[in-house]
Specification:
With 106 residues, this protein is of the alpha/beta class. The protein contains 4 helices and 4 strands, in the order αβαβαβαβ. The strands form 2 sheets. Strands 1-2 form a two-stranded parallel ribbon. The chain has a two-stranded parallel sheet with strand order 3-4. The longest helix is centred in the middle third of the chain and has 14 residues. The protein is globular and about 50 Å long.
Length: 106
């Protein structure tokens, strides 16, 4: 699942999923360039898109992460405290960073 709208991240999601795997793009903006035969057809990849995703989908993804002990914290390249939210959103708008997260104060 890609929620970044980053063209490179979307491309890599399709290229790195296993054969017969599923990829979902969540989010509104962005583009992607794919080598359709190699990235999708020959590997039987299913590509889906969603403006958002359901509570059931959120639960499924959370369960997947928990069951496999995936270190979600390692995904984040940028962290801000809630009091820094204004700065964080200005950085998000630049779309030059990686994955960011806003944490509660304290």
């Amino acid at each position: 699942m890609d929620c970044t709208t980053s063209p490179i991240a979307r491309q890599q999601a399709c290229q790195s999923v296993r054969q017969w795997g599923k990829v979902c793009y969540v989010g509104w903006n962005g583009t992607v360039t794919l080598d359709v035969p190699n990235d999708l057809l020959l590997r039987q990849v299913t590509l889906m898109g969603s403006w958002t995703f359901s509570k059931a989908g959120q639960y499924e993804y959370a369960r997947f992460v928990a069951d496999r002990g995936i270190d979600v914290d390692a995904l984040f390249t940028d962290r801000w405290l809630l009091e820094q939210a204004d700065e964080a959103y200005k950085d998000f708008d630049k779309q030059t960073g990686g994955k960011g997260v806003i944490l509660p104060n304290g």
